[in-house]
Write a structure and sequence with these properties.
Layout (H helix, E strand, L loop, with lengths): L18 H25 L9 H18 L5 H9 E4 L5 E3 L14
Antiparallel strand pairs: 1-2
C-alpha cells in the first residue's frame, strides 16, 4: 500500500480554541445531553419535582466541571471533587473521604 491511503483525521489540538469557544461548546453540549439524561431518569421511574431541582443542577454543574477540566479550564466544583474523593478501594473505585469539611457562608447583601 502506498502512503496515499492514509486517512487524515481532524486536528483536535485544543490550544487553538479560546475560552469563549470552549464555553460555547460546553453549553451546547449540555443543552443537548441534559434533557436526554433527565428523560432517561423519568423513563426508569426516577421522576423529578421541585424538591430535586438543586440536585439536578448539581448533576449538570458536575458535568460542566468535568468538561471544563478536560478542556483545561477551571470550575468551582473541581476543588470540591479534588477534596471529596480520597482514594481508591481494591476494585479501583474512588472512595468518598470522611474528612471533608465544606464551609458555606451566606452572601452579604450590598
Amino acid at each position: 500500500m502506498g502512503t496515499d491511503n492514509i486517512i487524515q483525521f481532524p486536528n483536535r489540538n485544543r490550544s487553538n480554541m479560546s475560552t469563549s469557544d470552549y464555553e460555547t461548546k460546553i453549553q451546547l453540549f449540555l443543552e443537548n445531553i441534559v434533557p436526554k439524561i433527565l428523560s432517561n431518569f423519568e423513563e426508569n421511574g426516577f421522576d423529578s419535582d421541585n424538591n430535586t431541582i438543586k440536585d439536578a443542577a448539581l448533576l449538570v454543574e458536575g458535568i460542566r466541571s468535568y468538561l471544563h477540566k478536560v478542556c483545561g479550564l477551571n470550575h468551582p466544583l473541581q476543588l470540591i471533587a479534588d477534596n471529596l474523593f480520597e482514594s481508591m478501594d481494591r476494585k479501583g473505585n474512588l472512595e468518598i473521604s470522611n474528612k471533608v469539611k465544606i464551609v458555606i457562608t451566606q452572601k452579604k447583601d450590598n
